[in-house]
Amino acid sequence: MTGQSSKTRRIVPAPAPSHPDLRSTVLNVYCAEDEDVEWQWTETPTGRYVSGYRLLPRKHGLIYP
Questions:
Q1: Are strands 9-13 and 35-43 parallel, antiparallel or unpaired?
Q2: Cα separation of 12 and 37, whole Å?
Q3: pTM of the predicted structure, to 2 decimals
């Protein structure tokens, strides 16, 4: 067991694309309890989908389900 695996991690599912014909390139992200995910979107004529993400430090006082 490494120090990395002893940290509590959570799975954050990516938001669904805006149109059923589109597919996100990211399905979910593992992040630490003190991190949040910022989704990066790609816009197309058909709609938009998640194409990337950034992990950010969680702001104190904010709790997301």
A1: unpaired
A2: 8
A3: 0.74
Contact 37, 26 (CB under 8 A): no
DSSP state, residue 34: T
Amino acid at 17: P
Question: Token pair of 24, please?
Answer: 């996100």
* Residue 54 phi, psi dihedral angles, 5° rounding: -135, 140
Per-residue pLDDT reduced to its tens digit, 4-53: 555 789 999 999 999 999 999 999 999 999 999 999 999 999 999 999 99
**Which residues in 1-65 belong to E strands, given as ranges?**
9-13, 28-32, 35-43, 48-57
